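re: the backbone from monday

yeah here it is again, tokenized this time
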């Protein structure tokens, strides 16, 4: 069984509802607002725009990084509305997972013809979580 599968399944279901209603071509902010509504309808606890500080040499640096959604305090959700998911987008989510010490993340790209094409689930291994610390 996948780690936090119940939560990621609920988030993916919400994303599919939003995409089915709106389709591709809008800004990330539109999809984000609609996801908030769907999370509430599904009784999912979430925090939007969670600040993510960087710790460097024992110093906390507020660098402006923000997690789009932290769902049920364990799953990071990053929203995109881009032509293609690039390695940079995947690296961003992996970095957010590592910095926040979370294990599971979803990268959701709404600029696709079918939402299934825009869903990227990522799991950080224990080794990845501790590297560089």
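seq for it, each position gets an aa:
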């Amino acid at each position: 069984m996948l780690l936090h599968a119940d939560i990621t399944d609920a988030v993916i279901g919400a994303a599919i509802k939003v995409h089915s209603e709106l389709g591709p071509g809008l800004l990330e902010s539109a999809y984000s607002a609609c996801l908030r509504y769907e999370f509430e309808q599904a009784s999912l606890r979430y925090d939007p725009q969670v600040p993510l500080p960087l710790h460097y040499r024992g110093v906390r640096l507020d660098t402006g990084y923000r997690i789009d959604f932290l769902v049920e305090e364990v799953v990071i959700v990053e929203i995109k509305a881009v032509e293609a998911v690039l390695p940079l987008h995947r690296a961003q989510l992996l970095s957010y997972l590592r910095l926040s010490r979370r294990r599971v993340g979803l990268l959701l790209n709404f600029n696709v013809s079918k939402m299934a094409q825009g869903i990227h689930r990522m799991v950080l291994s224990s080794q990845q979580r501790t590297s560089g610390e």
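The longest helix spans residues 5-22. The longest strand covers residues 46-51.
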